[in-house]
Amino acid sequence: MYSALFMKRFHFWSLFLIIAILCIAYTGTYAKVEVLYKLSMPEPQTHYLEVEIQLSGYDKQELLLKMPVWAPGSYLIREFPRHIEGFHVETSTGKSLQFSKTNKNSWQIINGRNSSLVIRYRVYAFDLTVRTSFVDEDFAFVNGSNVFMYADYLRNLPARLIIHPHKNWEKISTGLQKEGESSWIYKIQNYDELADSPIQIGNHEVFTFNAAGVEHELAMVGPGNYNSRRIISDLSQIAEVCTEIFGENPNKRFVYIVHNLDRRGGGLEHMNSTVLQVDRWSYGPENSYLNFLSLAAHEYFHLWLVKRLRPAAFIPYDYDQEQYTPLLWVMEGFVSYYDDLILKRAGLMSEREYLRRVALNFSTLMNTPGRKVQSVAASSFDTWIKFYRRDENSNNSQVSYYNKGAVLATLLDLEIISNSMGKHRLNDVLKEMYQQFYKRKDAGINENDVKKYLERYAGKDLGDFFESYIYGTDEIDFEKYFEKAGLNLFDLNSENKSASLGFSFQYISANMVVRTVLRDGPAWKSGINVDDEILAIDGFRVRNDTFSKLMQNYKAGDEVKILLSRSGIIHEITCQAEKSTEVEYILQKTANPEKLPSLVFEKWLSR
User: Fold this and answer.
1) Which structural domains are found in the chain, ordered by start?
2) Which of 108, 514, 591, 606 to pair with 309, CA 20 to 30 A apart?
3) Do residues 203 and 169 lie in contact, with contact meaning Cβ atoms separated by under 8 Å?
């Protein structure tokens, strides 16, 4: 027995020593490699960024460089390499090296054991969204995932970035850490940090503030009717409330990059920053300003959920292809639930406005026919091919994991608070998963993990809930959950008897053109198509706003003769009008609620 035990220990320690030697050898091989990125924009009016990558101490025969095809947080293959031009490789002495493109996003370089390489290329950047890059005579906005290349086996090495702004620009805002206070040189822990740290370059306004023990920078790009003092105060409250939920803030420094445009563009989360694109005049009207704060809260909450506590399928990021997960209803849906709730708990949104927005979430879900077709888990999984590629039938065939995920988070939160008699809420589930998986294990989560922790705090089996509402498409019994908080959900349209033909339209040059057809509605049944031009109803010409006036003369069950043009050919179709199925919910408090519902409601909205 002693001999066998000795031999087992001998083999274990021998194996351990071999692995240690191999790790040291591997580390030694690449520790001497130094990676330097250079970024410049000498002619910004041409919309080109110039990139140079210097590798020193690299003596392998070959090098495979890649460009990501998607950006984390935006789940669609966007083919970023299509904007690459002028790829060139040479040694430090200027000798050109051979290379070949092996697939859509990979360049194979024949090195010949040179110790230093210089790679240069240009990127056409003229797409101003939160996930892409843009440069013109006013400023440059750089998303690393679609500008900087990398090599798989050098991906985890530290690197440096030198930025050469255009001569007319003086400011750079980014979450990357400066190497020196007076320089434009940045230290990079690894490629993932470079890919995930957007860079704003120009002459934008910069404000700094401290909140939750974290230094924050607010970069406001472009004019707008914003009040910087109010925004800083409100963003500070958002940071404080979010940090309280998880018990810590993972950053020492955080950067908001806000593009003020003539349109809205959404937001995208990053490990130490976020990019928001908003209508430049949206800061004045109170409701639109609250939308801005909700967007800011949404992206800030992602610091914990999705950037750190994330699906196992996202660890590590695979920049070459899709990474499938059925958990976006949690990663995005739960965050969509919290974005308005954070504002309420921070005192930035009234109780009345918050309840209105909650009811609107439920109305949106019930006005989506696709809720009966696609489960929220399937919506999460298929986001790569469906959610970002919507068409005229998407509303009939899909459900949003943002919207339904927020609805489910509402119900689960009320369930947890009620069942625990106010002791716990959804906050506790997220905080414990964050501590357990990100902080202790540095691992991702799967569906069973989510179900396990929800059940722990709900104090009950949630198998039916998951099967019916997450993996299934059953209609949700909203009322039983709202009763737990002393609330009633009313449909303002329940008594509305107006007739509907079941399609939406748009006036184009005063011509009425069908845009969507509602599944199982009158238009769907009678064969009216998207892009049909409605000419007349029962012999009366339809132009401008006459359609709504004409429809006031009909009730459910009436037949309506529609004259339309389809591809230049005239058709006459008969529809039978039906009662509109659209709902408009409101939430109202129950008069004289019992003690537990009152406790649940107070716990739900309290900080």
Assistant:
1) 30-202 (2.60.40.3650), 204-302 (1.10.390.10), 304-488+583-607 (1.10.390.10), 499-579 (2.30.42.10)
2) 606
3) yes
